[in-house]
Design goal:
heterodimer, A: alpha/beta, Rossmann fold, six-stranded mixed beta sheet, B: MetI-like fold, 14 helices, globular
């Protein structure tokens, strides 16, 4: 379901913004517009939608308009024109009071690069701040704040003041403050950029873990491509106020829309270095062709898999079986499932060899759902590649990079 | 350059006189009202401070200094104000204190809202700035003349002149303090759906507290520096003692009265300065 829909959104700074927008639509360059009207284009004709429960990353260099775009979503800054639909309701037309209501009901507030927590308040009071704004009674808001403090791992620091905490802990306060509100949409503006790399990595992982449980719609602004790849279900890359490409990490790396994006991903373009063999994992569990459907489903449940590869007695690959249809089949035929898995439940898949370059892996993984099998020359299953592994490989800094840095 | 000398002098002085005369003639009721109101506050604060034996007030001041600042300041207050009492300047000290406090009450009453307004609104800020510059650079004596003309002689013109002279730094520092609140703090509260009042009272004022308290401190100090000038308009108190000593070239008494002003100044300065820092050290 679409949580946020943005249509023809413009933000132009300056007193003659409407005129500047008309010129922009006629194709006048931004530089000429700035000379003529003094107006600066912040966001130009943004069109996209954000799904419920997804992490949507807006990425770009500084000045690309990414933070501006984010601040338009809750109208912290007023758009020049265009519409923003939250759950189907256009918020650009709302008056101040209705807008405030929307912010309280739909948004978890924001998480900022410099934390933006109040220096004169304790951790507990800071975390309860969002609820305090909403007028929640003291007892209840402290109780809810306390729960969230435990969730983000700040227990024991409730009565500390922000200056007594490290950067990472301060950002936990910022995150807890937002999550305590328990609305659907969480805005994060360069939230981890001020943290040192190790802490940043921890926080990213924790955010992903929390997201598993909470299923918020997160709009995450960053200038760091590694971070975008790790966190984003989809990524919008911005340049000079325009979204130049929007897609999943794989799509962006496999098919950069233009030279700008290409240059951007060049740093992390290790797809030529990597092959399927270098990023594959051992299959955690394998189905054999003579296993019954019930056995196979149990195997998958035990390992928490949503799909599994089946091999025959020669260890050659037969195909992929998905958990959902298999479970449905078992439910339907609850009496008679003694035999083998019916052939229609065994999906065809695209086998890879260990030498398949990453570029090709990324193209193939988009063509079929689920993981891909890696086979050796005898067609034996030696590994599997899941979507996350590709991203992890691309966004991690291999040791070779670091040693190279030390030599210089 | 010659033509400057040949054109007739601009009658600015006559215009000012005309305006003052016009105001005196036509809005007398307003000035009388202000005068009566101020007199009432001044009289009450003075008689309130004079309740009971001087030792009662002295003890109160010592406790205040001890609790808020520390034992050193408590000791200083005991010795300093003890000396004022000993020098026979206690009633004058009380008059000066009530003058300064009364002026400060009105400074806070007008200065804080104006400063907050200027801090949150760019247009008000730009309009107010030249006015504040003007108020602060104009010699303090100049306020005295219209003050006397409007309010006669006594404590009231002194209080009014003090108010106008000392209000500028409070407005300035309040506005500055609010402007210095990091933008993301304000945005954070807005993103939660804060109302303007919540934004002001939960974010802007608490964060700007130290700067605003510095403004309060500055305005009190400037107010104290006005006591001698206010004495020229007939205000009673330590200022008048100093003034009288100057006129009689009485170095000894002038010094003693001056010292009493300094003791009062140190007391008020330390007290208000500590007030601003207090919570910051805890954080």
């Amino acid at each position: 379901m679409e949580k946020i829909v943005v249509k023809n959104l413009y933000k132009i700074f300056g007193s003659r913004s409407k005129l500047a927008r008309d010129l922009l639509e006629k194709g006048v360059s931004k530089k000429d517009i700035q000379e003529k009207t003094g107006a600066v284009v912040g966001v130009q004709n943004a069109n996209f939608s954000i799904q419920n429960g997804e992490i949507f990353v807006i990425m770009g260099l500084s000045g690309s308009g990414k933070s501006t775009l984010q601040r338009l979503l809750n109208r912290l800054w007023e758009p020049t024109s265009g519409s923003i639909l939250i759950d189907g309701k256009d918020i650009t037309k709302l008056d101040k009071n209705s807008l405030r209501k929307v912010r309280r009901e739909h948004f978890c507030g924001m998480v900022f690069q410099q934390f933006a927590i109040l220096p004169h308040r304790t951790v507990l009071e800071n975390v309860a701040f969002g609820l305090e704004i909403q007028g929640v009674a003291k007892e209840e808001r402290f109780e809810r704040a306390q729960k969230m403090i435990d969730v983000v791992g700040l227990s024991g620091n409730e009565q500390s003041y922000p200056t007594q905490l490290s950067g990472g802990m301060q950002q936990r306060v910022g995150l807890a403050r937002a999550l305590t509100v328990d609305a659907d949409i969480l805005l994060m503006d360069e939230a981890f950029s001020a943290l040192d790399p190790l802490i940043r990595r921890d926080m990213q992982n924790e955010l992903l873990e929390l997201q598993q449980k909470m299923q918020k719609t997160i709009v995450f602004v960053t200038h760091d491509l590694d971070e975008a790849l790790r966190l984003g279900d989809r990524i919008a890359i911005m340049k000079d106020g325009e979204i130049v490409q929007l897609g999943t990490a794989e799509e962006i790396i496999a098919k950069p829309a233009n030279d700008y994006v290409k240059a951007f991903i060049q740093d992390i373009d290790r797809s030529e270095v990597y092959t399927a063999g270098s990023i594959m994992q051992e299959p955690r569990e394998i189905a054999h062709s003579n296993d019954g459907p019930r056995t196979i489903l149990r195997k998958m449940q035990r390992k928490g898999l949503s799909s599994i590869f089946m091999i025959d007695t020669e260890r050659a690959l037969v195909g992929r079986i998905d958990a959902d249809p298999l479970a449905a089949y078992l439910k339907e035929n609850s009496g008679d499932v003694a035999g083998k898995v019916p052939a229609e439940l065994v999906e065809k898949t695209l086998p890879l060899s260990k030498e398949t370059p990453l570029q090709e892996v990324m193209v193939k993984i988009q063509q079929v759902p689920g993981p891909l099998p890696v086979l050796d020359e005898k067609k034996h299953l030696v590994g599997v590649i899941v979507r996350g592994a590709i991203i992890a490989a691309l966004s991690s800094h291999p040791e070779t990079d670091e040693t190279k840095g030390e030599d210089q | 350059m010659n033509f400057v000398l040949t054109i007739p002098k601009l009658p600015l002085d006559e215009w000012v006189e005309w305006i003052v005369a016009f105001l005196r003639g036509n809005v007398r009721w307003l000035f009388d009202g202000i005068r009566n109101g101020l007199n009432w506050v001044l009289g009450n604060s003075e008689s309130f401070l004079s309740i009971g034996h001087p030792l009662v007030l002295l003890g109160l001041l010592v406790i205040l200094a001890f609790v808020i600042v520390g034992w050193r300041m408590g000791l200083f207050t005991l010795l300093g104000f003890g000396y004022i009492l000993n020098a026979g300047l206690w009633p004058e000290m009380v008059q000066t204190l009530s003058l300064v406090l009364t002026a400060e009450i009105f400074i806070l009453l007008f200065g804080l809202p104006l400063g907050i307004w200027a801090g949150r609104n760019d247009r008000v800020h730009t309009m107010l700035r030249p006015v504040l510059d003007f108020l602060q650079t104009l010699p303090a004596f100049v306020y005295l003349i219209p003050a006397v003309m409007f309010f006669g002689i006594g404590m009231v013109p002194g209080a009014v002149a003090t108010l106008i002279f000392a209000i500028a730094p409070l407005i300035r520092l309040t506005s500055l303090g609010i402007r210095q609140v990091p933008r993301d703090l304000v945005e954070a509260s807005e993103a939660f759906g804060a109302t303007e009042l919540q934004k002001l009272f939960k974010v802007q004022l608490p964060v700007a507290r130290t700067t605003i308290m510095a403004g309060v401190n500055q305005s009190i100090m400037l107010g104290l520096s006005m006591v001698i000038i206010a004495a020229m308009a007939g205000a009673q108190g330590l200022g008048r003692e100093v003034l009288a000593a100057i006129q009689r070239v009485d170095v000894g008494n002038g010094f003693v009265a001056g010292l009493a002003v300094v003791i009062l100044a140190i007391f008020l300065d330390r007290l208000t300065a500590t007030f601003g820092e207090k919570k910051q050290t805890k954080a």
